[in-house]
Specification:
31 helices, 751 residues, P_AcTrfase_dom1, 5 domains, alpha/beta, Rossmann fold, globular, single chain
Amino acid sequence: MDEDALEYHRSEPPGKIEIATTKPTNTQRDLSLAYSPGVAAPCREIAADAGDAYQYTTKGNLVGVVSNGSAVLGLGDIGAQASKPVMEGKGVLFKRFADIDVFDIELDLDDPDAFVESVAAMEPTFGGINLEDIAAPHCFEIEERLRDRLSIPVFHDDQHGTAIISGAALLNAVEISGKDLEDLEVTFAGAGAAAVATATFYVSLGVRRENITMCDIDGVLTTARAESGDLNEYNREFARDRPEGDLADAMVGADAFVGLSAGGIVSPEMVRSMADDPIIFAMANPDPEIAYEDAKRARDDTVIMATGRSDYPNQVNNVLGFPFIFRGALDVRATEINEEMKVAAAHALADLAKQDVPDSVVKAYGDQPLQFGPDYIIPKPLDARVLFEVTPAVARAAVESGAARLERDLDAYVERLEARLGKSREMMRVVLNKAKSDPKRIALAEGTDETIVRAAAQMIERGIAEPVLIGDEAEIRGTIANLGLEFEPDVVDPESGDYEAYAEHLYDRRQRSGITRREATARIRDDTNYFGSVMVDRGDADAMLTGLTNHYPSALRPPLQVIGTADDAEYAAGVYMLTFKNRVLFVADATVNQAPDEDVLEEVTRHTADLARRFDVEPRAALLSYSDFGSVDNEGTRKPREAARRLREDPAVDFPVDGEMQADTAVLEEMLTGTYEFSDLEKPANVLVFPNLEAGNIGYKLLQRLGGADAIGPMLVGMDEPVHVLQRGDEVKDIVNLAAVATVDAQGDRS
């Protein structure tokens, strides 16, 4: 591990962070705007009103991570220079989880006065200050003085991060164990910065101060020790009027143990001395105060255990807190991070742990079960939903407590946060909002599948659709119970109901295509794809999803046979939406038509343009080939050329379209406006129609895997009723997204 870490850090370029430009710097004019003489304009505005720095500079998204390296986790006092890799790492986490930019500042200063003066002098640079790895008791003094002096948030993560995350865990642990915060007897091992801050925060959550017993290396913090001057001004707040004793004495009868000290100091006997169903947060790193297995084996009742390690359940990891707390504070220009904001963060984290966990998170942690209970009381650090739950809660608390200088429309704010994590989230938000305005009944042909059941629960929770689960009702109800989901979906069991009318409907549709009445009855009973297709075709459901457990062709065949294409359509097609940081592409056809002629290409272009508009994207279509506007003339290049000509000459086509053209011509503005200035496309295309299925499928997968695009789809266009065929292995979020698309389809918004 050491050698791997050294290689990781020394490989070119050394370190883990860099500065990147956010504006164009390609021309002389760009440089004139970025620096002299254009830069004078924002300088004058800021000189007249200092608040304009948030408008014209990166201040509002820039945090200073400041340390003197006097208390680096696991390493101790290693000095400012040696702490730099840690501070760079902190910057990586800020950027990765909350899109916050960081300058790491290492100050070679041991004197608190000099440290405070140096940090205070940097206030014009930053929107917030994250203090890191500063030894107690100076860390308390430094934070207090800077908070009083600066008008931007100051937050010592070593104190408050652990407090907030473990506080969220405590809220859920108390609920699971049936205990009460007000009556909770809590024993702390450790009396340093993290322990004092955590104990103080627990009081804010509802634990009574007189019920907290704190121990340091010399034993219990008692009033006698405080009066003798043995304690500092910060930890003496938790001195109790009780006999002196050691940690073992303090743990007798305790409901909860909180370890912020050293590994291996708690024995199984000490755990057995605690109250029923004890809560044990052994957070020393890298070795907890008691090993996870030892604590669990020490008792026959429920032991709710958390550590600071990622290889055991319930990791108390500060990355669940500081990026999102600062994100919320920065976005409302808060003057501080106050107690109300911290409490809001803890409650938001606790609530999130009770929600269904995304498949991507489960996979990231080795497919281990993640369901609210003793082994899952806090979310995992890689859960992207933390941004959308904790950040708005912090922002709201800042506004309500008077710490904010800006107010936010929180619904619109969540959409802005979605956009920070990628264009795909921003685009899907458009469709999700439309779906919520008028939810539709969605037939889910694979209703017994666990992933489908979880997706159905989220459809209801998010208000985007009314799912109908098709399949064995007992199995579906059992899956809901096993997953701990609390929802009552509409379940349709083809084997237990009277669906003779469905069989008759299928027979009417297919009797001249080789199906008998008996075969129709059997397919309705045994094949949920046919059942769901008939359900939609009869109007008993508004849309259908299938394909999660079937090959694409076999899943597509029943809806094509029963529902068919729209009255104005001859062909269906599969479209992917690919989203990049600053661009969206709709790619067709990637799943259906193997060797389309000009008729198919023309129709697929129309369908795909309509789909783009459902995402509020004005389409600009390019029909692709390996030829540019006749540079190669053969049967293959004539098909997209002819389709493009027809579309351009059709007065009903109200979007720009051109072709045939090469892919780089379609997406690079300088080629369109320079080399091919005659093109009907004045801007790069956002609808790319490939010449055949091979090219489309290969192209979208290369863009997704090597180009870093997020893919949503495939979305089936051209059907008479909304039907979408999932990909095998799709996650819950993919199914929910396609359900939203299907709902918008069913709303009739097809223009």
